Amino acid sequence: MRRFLHDINPTVRGLLIVALIAIVVVVFQLQQTVSVVGGLLRIAFFLAIAFFVFLVWRERRSDIDTWSQRARAVFYGAVALVVVDLGVLFSGRLPAGLPTLAFVLVLAICGFAMFRVWRDEHTYGG
């Protein structure tokens, strides 16, 4: 049996593992548990992203402190809007259609604003 599992294609082996987990969930009626774990993982992923952004900010905040007041306000405002936008995404309340387009446009505009502020504040000689 061990030799059979070792020789099988890794993709097929992975699909068999997923199918086995699905069968266990259906047989023992664990759908509610799976949805709770999924919600917890969604929250954990959002917190992990926030922690990473915090670490990057903490490393670069001395550079940001040298920027003009307007540049800092635009940069931090864009960051706050991105956090709120991602919070809506991770809350699971984003329906299809125009709200999804608005979500993507807000991310794009905030990213562009942050990029422009960063580029304008990092011009060297010129």
Q: Sheet with the most strands?
A: none
Radius of gyration: 22 Å
Q: What is the beta-strand fraction? A: under 5%
What is the straight-line distance between the termini?
70 Å
- Report the helical percentage: over 70%
Shape, per Cα inertia axes? elongated
Question: What is the succession of H and E elements?
Answer: HHHHH
Description of the structure:
- There is one protein chain.
- The protein is built from five helices and no strands.
- It has 126 residues and is mainly alpha-helical.
- Helix 3 (31-65) packs antiparallel against helix 4 and helix 4 packs antiparallel against helix 5 (98-121).
- 2% of the residues are buried.
